[in-house]
């Protein structure tokens, strides 16, 4: 077994992410991560005191990938960049993505992306007292949409369920041709545009 150096925290989190991607979150343990990295489980405790801290670090690692590359963009462009990056992240790591809905970001990386969301909303003219609430509204929509896609709720199979479940319901029959979109990308873009208008009406 080899010793970990101070720069190995990213390696630990990458190993945790790989395990969760391959075998699901239920397979993630300090022992499994230690085996993947090639150290004893005790060696990990200098970095993460327990599995909860490891999961917090994993959330921060994922959130760090959502930060816009160009801080000089308009507030709409910054919010849009984070939203589309969130959707990509869900597709790349479907087993791990639910953690973003289950755990509050507590690491510097996690706080940074939320702070960028706050700043975009401030730049949009949202009153300071309303910024946290509006951020939760936007984040919950984006993460919920992304999770619905990777879980199968938004899928071709769900189209048949939506059509069949309302065969005897009048509103369902009336809306039959509109119940499931042909293009989920277009729906996501339209939903984001609606949110932007709520945040700052044109």
Automatic annotation (TrEMBL):
<feature type="domain" description="HTH tetR-type">
    <location>
        <begin position="6"/>
        <end position="66"/>
    </location>
</feature>
<keyword id="KW-0805">Transcription regulation</keyword>
<dbReference type="InterPro" id="IPR050109">
    <property type="entry name" value="HTH-type_TetR-like_transc_reg"/>
</dbReference>
<feature type="DNA-binding region" description="H-T-H motif">
    <location>
        <begin position="29"/>
        <end position="48"/>
    </location>
</feature>
<dbReference type="InterPro" id="IPR004111">
    <property type="entry name" value="Repressor_TetR_C"/>
</dbReference>
<dbReference type="InterPro" id="IPR036271">
    <property type="entry name" value="Tet_transcr_reg_TetR-rel_C_sf"/>
</dbReference>
<keyword id="KW-0804">Transcription</keyword>
<dbReference type="InterPro" id="IPR001647">
    <property type="entry name" value="HTH_TetR"/>
</dbReference>
<dbReference type="Pfam" id="PF00440">
    <property type="entry name" value="TetR_N"/>
</dbReference>
<dbReference type="GO" id="GO:0000976">
    <property type="term" value="F:transcription cis-regulatory region binding"/>
</dbReference>
<protein>
    <submittedName>
        <fullName>AcrR family transcriptional regulator</fullName>
    </submittedName>
</protein>
<keyword id="KW-0238">DNA-binding</keyword>
<dbReference type="Pfam" id="PF02909">
    <property type="entry name" value="TetR_C_1"/>
</dbReference>
<dbReference type="GO" id="GO:0003700">
    <property type="term" value="F:DNA-binding transcription factor activity"/>
</dbReference>
<dbReference type="InterPro" id="IPR009057">
    <property type="entry name" value="Homeodomain-like_sf"/>
</dbReference>
<dbReference type="GO" id="GO:0045892">
    <property type="term" value="P:negative regulation of DNA-templated transcription"/>
</dbReference>
